Amino acid sequence: MAEQFPALIIVVPLIAAFFIPLIGWWKKQLCYPWVVAVLVVTFISSLGIINTVMTTGKFSYRLGGWAPPWGIEYALDYLSAFMLVIVSFISLMVAVYSKKSVEKELPEKTVPFYTLFLLLITGLLGIVITGDVFNLFVFLEISSLSCYALIAIGEEGAPIAAFNYVIMGTIGACFYLLGVGYLYVATGSLNMADLAVILPNMYHSKIILVAFAFFTVGIMIKGAIFPLHIWMPDAYSTAPSAVSALIAPLMTKVAAYVMIRIMFTIFQPRFSVETVPVMTILGWLSFIAIFAGGIKALAQTDLKKMLVYILVAEVGYIVMGVSVANKIGLTGAILHILNDAFMMACLFLIVGAISYRIGTRDIHKLHNLNKIMPFTMGAFTITALSMVGIPPACGFFSKWYLILGTIEAGQWAFAAALLCSSLINAVLFFRVIECAYFKPMEPAYANDGGETHMAQRDEAPLTMLVPIVIMAAGIILLGIFSGNIISSIIQFAVPASF
Amino acid sequence: MLDYVIGKYNFWIYVVLMMIGLYAMMGKKNLVKKLIGMNIFQSAIILFYISTGVKKGGATVPILMGHAQGHGHQAIDVAGYLNPLPHVLMLTAIVVSIATTGVALAILILIYRRYNTLEEDEILKIRKDTGV
Prior knowledge:
By secondary structure, chain A is mostly helical. Helix content of chain A is 75%, strand content 2%.
């Protein structure tokens, strides 16, 4: 059983997704417990995998028993096992949360929603687990296609945003596919480990350079890395709240994972860093991204839009950590993948809960929210402190490592950008907290006709509140135990060539 | 130069088709035309993959055993058959491209129901006028 976990983690959600229409046809209410049960199995499998990796080191799973360079291989090392745990845990939390929000936002589309939801998670897990570049493309498209459809069923403007995402996402995927094709023409292999052995002899080749360029641009589009993020704000902010809580933390992080894989596993760091100046370019692009994302976020009054622009900046942090290309910077980037996945998931879950109860996401209409939804706002404050980077919340530690990494690389401007963005985040989040906690209720905004000005306590339903509180507690715990996480997992997850 | 172009004409066709697709996706205002551009773009990549599997000089499709000289009867002459792997990969890519087209067309139906037009500038105008 335990040695089959790598297959189960993909096969179980994939097969389960196709049973949902049948189950929904029989009894609609059973879809939700089915999805949660499937994701619990996935989460247990991911824990089993990371346990195996931590006790016996990295291993690979051969699908159908075919030996690696020819057959498809699932490569499990510290980095992919670590990502599997993140993806499966956050998708489990979002699935628990989704019950009420889907009932309210998509009352007639529960069955297709859950089908696509599981397919999306299958795709994300598959991207992380696979050791084959073409298999990665297939999973990338599974996740993207379900993502397009999930976004399109959102609110006003969602279809347009989804269509733009289809066009941009397809260009990204096609560029990735072209990169795979060029590598195949040059090397005759599709296996990542095999490519890593063959490629160093042909780093001077133009084909390899072109393939690398296609990979980089393709992943930048898919991962909404500045300046190719233009499809992202509309798509993520108009999606249904359960969907944005899933895709905002995970899609971008998984793309960042693919980027680390391509740049430091398939290609050696000496190619990615020295042969082409891509790291310098990425570093300065993320420098701009951090400021542009922050400033655009300041201009928003819609809480969800604000978060989406913050996400642009947060992706910038991770790319910056990758671009400095030293051990500390990459430790920071990988730690930030974990921390930011938690923080973003928590924030988007909270926004969903607020719009579920209050019916608005306008920052200026959130008066007295601390009295109406005390636990939700408590979780919001914890997450906000973490985003600003105040210990012991986890955001501080990853930012600390990122800054140390930029200093070691001698990039003082990047370190300054990271510090400045903490200030921008402080302004952004304290603006919301001020509105929610300290502003008196104005009659004009009281939406019950001005009769009762005392705010009634009206907390989010339990299925929404429990994931939010767990995520907020997780943010503190991740901060406290970040030393353990780094010493037991992340230091081995950083590619061995550093 | 001319020999260079003609000798590798399959790759030139793929590049030209890809650029046509890219232009249609960026330059056209009509959303269906954008979608058609996307299809051309994907087909160009399929053509590229297919042509990488081709070998000149009498190579055939089936992988026949026992034609190589100086080997055992199990040996296979590599020059005797076309590389099937890119073709198989493209079967998957064709499925992906059809699925993408399907999703995109479904989204276009949603857009048309809501705005009654598929011209991008008209939709933007409607959205601006209604203040959304």
